[in-house]
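@channel sequence for tomorrow's demo:
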Amino acid sequence: MNKRKEEEQGLSEWIGSPIAAFPEYPYCGVDSRPADPIIPMAVVSIAALASKYLFFTQSIPAIPSLKASPVSSTLIRYTTITATMSAKPLNPQSHPSLEVSGGALDSFLPAFTTLDRPYDSYPVVGSNTHLETIFAYFFRSNPDVRFRRECLRAKDNGSISLDWVVGDDRNLSPNSPTLILLPGLTGGSGDSYIRHMLMRARKKGWRVVVFNSRGCGFGPVTTPQFYSASFLGDITEVVAHVSSRFPEANLYAAGWSLGANILVNYMAKESVNCPLSGGVSLCNPFNLVMADEDFQKGFNIVYNKSLSSSLRKIFNTHALLFEEIEGEYNIQAAANCRSVREFDDSITRVSFGFKSVHDYYSKSGSAQSIKDVRKPLLCIQAENDPIAPARGIPREDIKENSNCMLIVTPQGGHLGWIGGDEAPFGAPWTDPIVMDFLEYLERTKSMSVPNAKSEENTHSVQATVK
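structure tokens (generated this afternoon):
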């Protein structure tokens, strides 16, 4: 049997098993197999495309090998620094296929080595936003990483799970730049987009830690409170803790989806006193009212049901904490929720003191706070994102903020961005962009004023997980 036939046979075996189509994701904090029948149908459709070799090239290895487990005024201006970088063009330009803007555009554009190239979404997969989103979730490779878990006890006795890479304490110096990663709703350190970014940063000599929100990434829940789009207590404690552990290191953060919204809200709240030297926001919903509206329409109902299934699973695991709790909590509705909105109305908005779910959404989006960001911030969005609608991007506020830059790609879906040198199974197109930006900030030592390191008021328990 020749190599081509072996690959076709391997591909047929891989997509032919109903179990193989929905592998276990032990770190994702989500159901291993979607509860809604529409999701399997979507995946089978993608598998059918794969079986026809519509988008696999001869360079792609046999499919079975992919089964691996899953500032304002205080900001230092960069113009003089840019002039000294002879390797960079004097007048860097972005490619017309990308929407690139922001008050910090002239300052940050020299950071990027690939923005002058067209955005190259992968054939067929990148042709449809839902196809790209689902393909990335189910079929993107998931690098093998060994973590050491640190359980941080918050001031309210809640538990936050921080996942550090095993061996970094031995291999990296105390002043190595440190990157905090914030996954999306119900996500954690097992998500493929998190691990790809982690691996790229580590290859550059960065220390990386994943911030798993309460109950996510199989983390413990010790109080009757989870997290929200605008609750900043946990990220404040995490940044202070990481900063106190590595006081000589510059600290950065990158967030995806809900994690991006939390990050931008945090940077805005801290303003010039933010301990971060810079941040990156990806797939940020920005305007939660608009995002909620779109969540109720068309194919987006599939994502809504999938995420609500994940929320149900996390909640039901810890439901005893909410027994006999006072207030407007609707425990029964949360335990059986069929939408993110229903869960937020039953639990989230009550936990964080909002009058209604609309009140929660209208006051928690980072579109209204981004104008107050005073440290370098890169925002990357996809024009066709089905979950973070492009019409919610605060373009004018970004243009008027001298610390912010925006990149909008024509395709990408949500957490997809299947393009670039590693498509279709490797790292997202955004990863080299993010790393260019972070390395540029680190090279130029862009922190405005050294911040006083916060005292550590938390206690930690460590364990090794994989």
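heads up for whoever presents: The two ends are 38 Å apart (CA to CA).
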